[in-house]
Design goal:
heterodimer; A: about 220 residues; alpha/beta; Oxidized Rhodanese, domain 1; five-stranded parallel sheet; two-stranded antiparallel ribbon; B: about 270 residues; alpha+beta; Immunoglobulin-like; nine-stranded mixed sheet; six-stranded antiparallel sheet; globular
Chain lengths: ~220, ~270
């Protein structure tokens, strides 16, 4: 409990919270192997130049709010800057998605989280807010978690199998909210399952609505407990 | 191309059919909420009696400022603010006492997802008057607990009152009370411990002037951290100088109370 308490004076009216920001790791931005054939002077010069460049890269990365792709799934906080890419799949933007839906009827998978019921509210009193999604989507909350139990993994895998009719080349679109790792993880998972036409729609349901597209209320397909 | 022409023709005939469906879904949801809050009493859309101002796009979904105004002299006895797509959608239900004035109410709220917000005024004849505003903000209800909430918990129950303009008998006085309270909604995860912070929020606020009611307000979990309530009260000559008392009760049944001097100024 002690950790909660701060002695700083009240600061009324200060906007103190935005989306959580992740620290961009310097190690991931600096090249891992220096050029071997450079002479001492050149090496020093290159090092200085690199050191000068690093803060610039960081500033740039922060401005774009993107981070490098993690080696595996992202297991940190779900909200925060996400990569601009997804290896083995492609990033799709709103206009592209609208066209894809029109032309190819892709499988649409919404992996937005279930709203957490406050513990002290009785289950029968809890009315979760309506979940609005891209029409035609199947809502699979939890499919984008950093780690899935084998049971959950089977659940997600069999949903994708069912939705694609077992066709690994069927276009697949995975989304949740902007700056949310859930959709990145779930898209990555689909790629690793062997789907060859995976689209990650990073802009999510808010991006979809911002472009003036419709939504539809859906119920979740609940993961097994 | 033929497809496009066909779509355009359909648009021409039916407006935007898809969006009309979404709109119908949203209106149906509001109808359910209204019935839950007001029973089967019909409300009249009355933009001339009540207005709701909220940012069309909020910078911080966990701290969205809203302003409800009603036409002065329209005999409003209560104001209700509903955020349709929030868990715990009734952000505030205010009823006014003899020293209250419903012409202005400001709040700061959390917004879970792109949603309609409704403000409903009840007049002394029992009629309901509603207005709506669509707000694009998302993620405010699950926004993680940060240092700000820790500060608020440490200072819990402290209050400040701001009076603006002159204080004169018979004239509405603009006031804002700031209440230190983390207002945990039970849906916020601590990013470090990955645990949900237990719910603890401001449930009731009573404001009196010399023991006569200005307003009483009931809240669900939609108010932002450190509730800030802007309101108006009307002192009589015998009320000045006087004491404005604010009593806050939270969901843990903790009661916080503070009195503020209301000086007689101007006139």
């Amino acid at each position: 409990m002690q950790a909660w308490f701060f002695s700083s004076p009240p600061t009324w009216g200060r906007v103190r919270r935005g989306k959580p920001r992740l620290v961009v790791r310097q190690s991931s931005l600096a090249p891992s192997t220096p050029a071997p054939q450079l002479g001492g002077f050149l090496a020093t010069f290159a090092t200085i130049a690199l050191l000068l460049l690093i803060p610039l890269c960081i500033a740039r990365a922060q401005a774009q709010e993107t981070v490098p792709e993690p080696a595996g799934f992202w297991t940190g906080p779900m909200g925060g800057p996400v990569p601009a890419t997804i290896a083995g799949g492609r990033v799709i933007e709103t206009a592209g998605l609208a066209a894809l839906i029109e032309e190819k009827q892709p499988v649409l998978v919404d992996v937005g989280p279930l709203p957490h019921k406050p513990e002290t509210i009785a289950a029968e009193e809890w009315v979760p807010p309506p979940h609005r999604t891209i029409p035609g989507s199947v809502w699979l909350p939890g499919a984008g978690d950093g780690k899935l139990t084998p049971k959950l993994d089977d659940w997600y895998r069999s949903w994708l199998e069912q939705l694609t009719g077992g066709d690994p080349s069927k276009p697949l679109v995975v989304f949740c909210h902007p700056d949310c790792w859930g959709s990145w993880n779930a898209a990555k998972r689909a790629i690793l399952y062997g789907y060859s036409n995976v689209h990650w729609y990073e802009e999510g349901i808010e991006g979809w609505q911002d472009a003036g597209h419709e939504t539809r209320v859906v119920q979740p397909e609940l993961p097994p407990r | 191309m033929r497809k496009l022409a066909l779509s355009l023709a359909l648009l021409g005939m039916f407006g935007t059919p898809a969006l009309a469906d979404e709109e119908a879904e949203r209106q149906a949801h509001w109808a359910e909420l209204r019935e839950a809050v007001f029973g089967d009493r019909a409300a009249v859309a009355a933009a001339d009696l009540i207005a709701l101002e909220a940012p069309k796009r909020a910078l911080d979904a966990a701290l969205v400022p809203i302003t409800v105004t009603t036409k002065p002299g329209s005999d409003v006895t209560g104001l209700t603010v509903v955020i349709d797509d929030n868990p715990g959608p009734v952000a505030a239900k205010v009823s006014y006492g003899p020293r209250g004035d419903a012409s202005l109410l400001t709040l700061r709220v959390r917004v879970n997802q792109y949603t309609y917000m409704h403000a409903v005024a009840e007049t002394s004849d029992g009629a309901l008057h509603e207005t709506a505003q669509f707000v694009k903000a998302a993620g405010g209800c699950s926004a993680p607990v940060g240092a700000g909430e820790a500060e608020s918990l440490a200072q819990i129950g402290r209050m400040k009152l701001r009076l603006s303009g002159e204080v004169a008998a018979g004239q509405p006085v603009d006031a804002q009370v700031l209440i230190r309270h983390p207002n945990f909604n039970g849906m916020q995860m601590d990013q470090l411990t990955r645990l949900y912070t237990p719910m603890r929020y401001v449930q009731q606020v009573e404001i009196t002037l010399n023991d006569e009611r200005v307003l009483s307000m009931e809240n669900d979990i939609s108010l932002a951290t450190d509730p800030a309530i802007g309101f108006r009260f009307v002192p009589r000559a015998e009320d000045l100088p006087g004491k404005l008392k604010v009593v806050v009760r939270d969901s843990d049944d903790a009661v916080f109370e503070q009195s503020f001097d209301v000086p007689a100024s101007g006139s």
